[in-house]
Write a structure and sequence with these properties.
single chain; binds magnesium ion; Alanine--tRNA ligase; coiled coil; 44% helix; 2 domains; binds adenosine-5'-triphosphate; BirA Bifunctional Protein, domain 2; alpha/beta; 16% strand; ligase activity; two-stranded parallel sheet; zinc; ATP-binding
């Protein structure tokens, strides 16, 4: 019988509990006491004070399913494996067990608990980590040649001092039919054949600012495995979106938009984007992130606006994100109870922002289309920075959205010109002008446009508006 995503999460946590790990709740998506990142991106984040010896951990062995959000992955959403919000399963050792046990536990879980076929699993190690390669040989029987050595298998503080070390990533071979067919298609290849499922990090050095590494007196283990990816493999699905953790959301949107999933690559991408972004927004709102023009609030806004645009691409003209909320809560509310207790608040935050943006989206899209048509006539392929800034500042168009739409039409964006306009604006507002980013401004801008242009008729955003003024 096939395990559900919920059952897989439980199997993982129970397995590590049976190995004396204390189950830790997921921490919030808003990092606690960590100014270096806007949102939680990995299970180890809440463990950092323990790894650094600054705080005493509840136990030396811990396990968790952590809510994660990765802004860096936004543009990849739509492929088979990438989400912005996902759950990361992890086991952690603070100065307790190390490399051998971490590999043995991972192997036992994958091959004995969830019964993945060993011949589909491919461990990789860092080129200098002979020790890890030896354990993979001793524990799982891999010959040295069968273990791919990858330079990128290294975890460390980027450009700073701190603990670091090699890691060992486990890939699942989906089969040659998913491969790119090149001679060096192997684990680590960008194509869809080898799916990275689990990363085992061996924190064994301390790195100085000058790059000198010294062995840590107390070594740590930090591992992370994407629940959706593991579920995709165990349920034999084509993508993370086809697992029970996400497919219900897709189906819900397919129904509302009357767009069958699987109809075309283009509509599937939009369905995947709104399913992923909708789910992410529900979790972000539950953790108290509110839309704004700065920091994590801007990430929220950007995600929501991107979702709304893809909703429009599917022909949706009514608010739809509240729909996602109930579906997401039905799916994940048992485990993440904050979703249930905050249902009303989440719906309110999402609906309000969605309504606000829908009003400006059509106008903004029209302006952008006209702009592109003008540039086209002048045989220009770059949108001037100040125009991009105007769309952002006056119409609430995230730069990334302008960039994305521009790219769809073969245009690029003058980003440094945009930055300059942004800077000038900031200087102006520092000099005492009103807050340019407030909602009042958005509303005022909208009123101005309506006055200037009359109520604009929506002409469609997929093609360029051919008639220009
Ligand atoms: P990728 O190479 O696919 O971007 P990563 O190397 O950035 O993944 P890690 O930082 O090693 O990922 O995180 C540990 C695990 O979390 C990965 O092995 C994968 O299973 C999962 N994971 C990472 N990013 C994503 C994502 N955007 N969506 C779904 N799962 C993810
Ligand atoms: Mg990544
Ligand atoms: Mg990777
Ligand atoms: Mg990785």
């Amino acid at each position: 019988t096939t395990l559900t995503g919920t059952e897989i999460r439980a199997r993982f946590l129970d397995f590590f509990a049976s190995k004396d790990h204390v189950k830790m709740p997921s921490s919030s998506l808003v990092p606690h006491n960590d100014p270096t990142v806007l949102l939680t991106t990995a299970g180890m984040q809440q463990m950092i004070p323990y790894f650094l010896g600054r705080e005493t951990p509840p136990a030396a062995r811990m396990t968790s399913a952590q809510k994660c959000f990765r802004t860096t992955d936004i543009d990849k959403v739509g492929n088979q494996r990438t989400l912005t919000f996902f759950e990361m399963l992890g086991n952690f050792s603070v100065g307790d067990y190390f490399k051998r046990e971490a590999i043995a536990y991972a192997w036992e879980f994958l091959t004995k608990v969830v019964n993945l076929p060993a011949d589909r699993l491919h461990p990789t190690v860092h080129p200098e980590d002979d020790e890890a390669a030896r354990y993979w040989h001793e524990i799982a029987g891999y010959a040295d040649e069968a273990i791919v050595r990858l330079d990128e298998n290294w975890w460390g503080p980027p450009g700073a001092s701190g603990p670091c070390g090699p890691d060992s990533e486990i890939y699942y071979d989906r089969g040659v039919e998913y491969g790119c067919g090149t001679a060096d298609c192997k684990p680590g290849c960008e194509c869809e054949r080898f799916l990275e499922i689990w990363n085992l990090v061996f924190m064994q050095f301390y790195q100085d600012l000058d790059g000198t590494r010294t062995p840590l007196p107390r070594r740590n283990i930090d591992t992370g495995m994407g629940l959706e990816r593991l579920t995709m493999v165990l349920q034999g699905k084509e993508s993370v979106f086809d697992t029970d953790l996400l497919r219900t959301i897709i189906d819900r949107f397919a129904l509302i938009t009357e767009t069958p999933y699987g109809q075309s690559a283009k509509t599937d991408t939009s369905l995947r984007v709104i399913a992923d972004h909708g789910r992410a927004l529900v979790f972000l709102a539950a953790d108290g992130v509110l839309p704004s023009n700065e920091g994590r609030g801007y990430i929220f806004r950007r995600i929501l606006r991107r979702a709304v645009r893809h909703g429009k691409l599917l022909g949706l003209d009514k608010p739809f994100l509240a729909e996602a909320t109930n579906t997401v809560i039905d799916l994940l509310g048992e485990h993440y109870t904050e979703l249930k207790t905050q249902r009303e608040r989440i719906i309110e935050v999402l609906s309000q922002e969605e309504k606000k943006f829908s009003q400006t989206l059509n106008t903004g899209l029209n302006l952008l289309n006209e702009l592109l048509a003008d540039l086209q006539q002048q045989h220009k392929k770059v949108i001037p920075g100040e125009e991009v800034f105007r769309l952002y500042d006056t119409h609430g168009f995230p730069v990334e959205l302008t960039q994305e739409i521009a790219a769809e039409h073969g245009f690029s964006v003058d980003t440094s010109g945009f930055e300059e306009s942004m800077q000038r604006q900031q200087e102006r507002s520092r000099a005492g002008a009103s807050n340019a980013f407030s909602q009042a401004q958005d509303d005022r801008a909208l009123t101005e446009i309506l006055k200037r242009e009359g109520t604009t008729e929506f002409l469609g955003y997929t093609g360029l508006v051919s008639s220009s003024k």
